[in-house]
Amino acid sequence: MDTGKVSGDPVIRLIGVEKTFSGQPVLRGLNLDIPRGKLTTIIGRSGGGKSVLLKHLIGLLKPDRGQVLVDDVDITTLGAHQLNEVRKKFAMLFQGAALFDSLSVFENVAFPLREKTALSETEIEQKVRAMLEEVGLPDMGHKFPAELSGGMRKRAGLARALVMGPEIMLFDEPTTGLDPLLARTIHDLIVETQRRFGFTAVMVSHEIPEVFGISDYVAMLLDGVIVEMATAKEFQRTTHPVVREFINVGGQCESSGIAAATGTEQSQG
Amino acid sequence: MIDTAVAGLGRHTLGLLREMGRMMLFLIGTVAWMVRPPFRFVQVLKQMHFIGVKSLFVIVLTGSFTGMVLGLQGYYSLRKFGAEGLLGSAVALSIIRELGPVLAALMVTGRAGSAMTAEIGLMRITEQIDALDTMAISPMQYLIAPKVLAGVLVLPMLVAIFDLIGIYGGYLVGVQLLGVSSGAYTSSMESSVEWKDVSGGFLKALSFGLIVTWVCTYKGYHTSMSAEGLGKATTEAVVLASVLILIWDYFLTSVLL
Fold first, then answer.
1. Per-residue pLDDT tens for A55-101?
2. In this prediction, does ipTM exceed 0.90?
């Protein structure tokens, strides 16, 4: 099963990854290459193991069998200390944004800087302010996560993830629970920042067809393996029957970035 | 029928052993991260405030009423033998050796331990613990170790306060209310309480501090991903910590005596 491979220079390679949760196999010998500097989206059924897959990329979960190579280093064999070194390349935006409740938005964004860099307080303040402006949350620094709406949390989470200048960004269903308009602005924000900062992005989503408009590559996870991976354009012309059915329900669109506009129209079913 | 019963018993035992192993590894991991830089003094101080200062009221309250009821019970028991003068000794020894450490630890479990489990459990459910991991910050070091260290440091202090208030509570009832002579109360206490009673009580306090924070952080850290799981984890933490305190108290007492 060699789908999930692309030509070029992969930054992350998953080889034969297997993972079972209490007797239930979730990943079954999965192979996947993540191309450097591109936005790759993984689609698939709810509860199909997409988030599990994403958590393997950053070592939050360890596979029962198989390898996860990040820049040719197998992170499944690393100890806690070495793993933390590899993790410095990563940042992740969680489904619920995972902001620290006890800290204000400003302190949340400043948190990784304070913990992991030797920057002075004034430098940190400048960086945090600039980043909050970047994600469209200026003047929100003093608020606490509980006071923010879902979209604002996502923005704050994005700011916290981006502030360290990661090489690889992971997005776990970044638009779940948001209305279509808000989802579109978050998508735009992701694409914009990805182009600006040039990081490798891996996104898990079931926003079809929107993902075709914003992704460079799309991969489909089905029954614990990647059954199809291609550029967003090619992916929509797939002949794989199940993948066809899956994307037809969401409807198709051109890779033009206006995907969200057609997103609310449901297909004939 | 017997087959399934035996199999069930075996499964249960294995599960229990596995859980004990996991708890032990959790403790070893916590200590390993505790002694490794960066040291989190601010976190430890914050936790000492949370576990210690915020438990003061309930410790003072339970301490005073425990001492008072001991004074009352002790007086009527001792009077049968005409030994009311030994009331100070009876109150002080039972509080310093047993009731101070045990009751203070149980109160801390109920007040701070349950909150600890809920806090860490909620952080687990909302992926804040994973977020720490992705930032290359060990949650064991940032979250767990300061709580355990603070618990071990703070519980002896709380016990000292509990002891003091308890003995004064006994004095209040025995001397002020029931008419035992003030000199007899204090001198009987002075002649019977030895250093090893006090040090034994503090050894208990130290180990109870470890048990409470260890069990409560462990249960929070391994919360299953639901609101129901969080409630279950909190209940389990309080029950397990309380039971372990009482069992460990018996063993420690039998060794110390």
1. 999 988 999 999 999 998 899 888 888 888 888 888 999 888 899 99
2. no
In angstroms, the CA B216 to CA B238 distance is: 7
CB A260 within 8 A of CB A219: no
- Its pTM stands at 0.85
Any B CB within 8 A of A90 CB: yes
Count of domains forming chain B? 1
Contact (CB<8Å) A87/B133: yes
Would A219 be classed as within a structural domain?
A: yes
3-state secondary structure A141-170: CCCCHHHCCHHHHHHHHHHHHHCCCCCEEE
Distance between CA atoms of A146 and B146, rounded to whole angstroms? 25
Residues of B in contact with A90 (CB under 8 A): 134
Residue ranges of B 64-123 with Cβ closer than 8 A to chain A: 122-123
Instruction: Please tell me the total count of domains within chain A.
Output: 2
Interatomic CA distance for residues B234 and B55, integer angstroms: 18
Cβ contact, residue pair A101, B128, below 8 Å: yes
Over the stretch A129-175, which tens digit does the pLDDT of each residue have? 988 988 888 888 888 999 988 888 888 998 998 888 889 999 998 88
Place of tokens 């489904």: A95
Looking at A115, A139, A165, the residue that finishes a domain is A165
